[in-house]
């Protein structure tokens, strides 16, 4: 079996903008902007909750959730939560946490949950002997008290069917798995045309409480 040596594409911003060029895929991409004070203020006003994450990196490292509550803000990072009375104080706290690394802001998605714990899905898609094939489709349930689902952060792995059944409905299992496969194929075709040499992809999908699927991230070095 010949496994393609995969090109790496670290920038989440480049991958996001490539996927936004396709109208079908774009409906499944959370609104995203590069982090600065003006963008953060406007996205919090629009959505009430955002996730800020490093432009480069994986494993849930450095991912921060920010929620607006009236004139106050809650910042969640790892297992800690801090409240800030105003936006300027929030920016000071955020800048201290991110240590000058470039970040992007992504609309926060209120994921479907199991026992109050959010769940998302990892689809591995690999090129073997010149053909793309599905390697796995798994649910990842966040550790109690955390909002990131990464297994290296204590998340629990389960079959995707079990995750969809328990967080949404047994009737949606086949529908949502098919939708994730369709999005994976379309997105891979687009990314491969933009960045030839990609041969190994890990798609992180979130399904919100209304059953809408979101592409949270695409990894070219999936674990």
Q: How would you portray this structure in words?
A:
- The radius of gyration is 17 Å and the shape is globular.
- A hairpin with a 2-residue loop joins strand 8 and strand 9.
- It is 30% helix and 34% strand.
- 31% of the residues are buried.
| Main sheet properties | 6 strands, antiparallel
Residue ranges: pLDDT <50 for 5 or more in a row?
Answer: none
Strand content: 25-35%
Counting DSSP E segments of at least 2 residues, the number of strands comes to 12
Pfam families: ATPgrasp_YheCD
Protein name: YheC/YheD family protein
InterPro entries: YheC/D (IPR026838)
Characterize this entry briefly.
The protein is an alpha+beta fold.
Summary tags:
223 residues, six-stranded antiparallel sheet, 6 helices, alpha+beta
SSE blueprint and pairings:
Layout: H1 12-20, H2 23-26, E1 32-34, H3 37-47, E2 49-54, E3 64-69, E4 72-77, E5 80-84, H4 87-98, E6 103-107, E7 113-114, E8 117-128, E9 131-141, E10 156-159, H5 160-167, H6 173-194, E11 200-207, E12 213-219
Antiparallel strand pairs: 1-6, 2-3, 2-6, 3-4, 4-5, 7-8, 8-9, 8-11, 9-10, 11-12
């Amino acid at each position: 079996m010949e496994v393609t040596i995969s090109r790496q594409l670290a920038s989440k911003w480049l991958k996001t903008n490539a996927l936004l060029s396709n109208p079908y895929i774009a409906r499944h991409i959370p609104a995203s902007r590069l982090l600065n004070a003006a963008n953060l203020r406007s996205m919090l006003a629009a959505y009430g909750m955002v996730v800020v994450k490093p432009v480069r990196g994986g494993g849930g490292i450095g991912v921060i959730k920010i929620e607006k509550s009236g004139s106050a803000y809650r910042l969640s990072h790892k297992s800690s939560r801090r409240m800030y009375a105003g936006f300027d104080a929030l920016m000071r706290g955020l800048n201290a946490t991110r240590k000058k690394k470039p970040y992007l802001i992504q609309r926060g998605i209120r994921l479907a949950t199991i026992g109050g714990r959010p769940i998302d899905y990892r689809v591995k898609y690999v090129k073997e002997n010149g053909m793309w094939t599905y390697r796995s489709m798994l649910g990842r349930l966040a550790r109690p008290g955390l909002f990131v689902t990464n297994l290296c952060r204590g998340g629990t792995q389960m079959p995707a069917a079990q995750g969809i059944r328990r967080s949404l409905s047994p009737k949606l299992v086949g529908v949502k798995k098919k939708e994730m496969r369709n999005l994976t194929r379309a997105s891979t075709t687009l990314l491969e045309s933009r960045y030839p040499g990609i041969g190994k992809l890990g798609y992180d999908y979130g399904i919100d409480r209304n059953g809408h699927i979101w592409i949270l991230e695409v990894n070219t070095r999936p674990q």
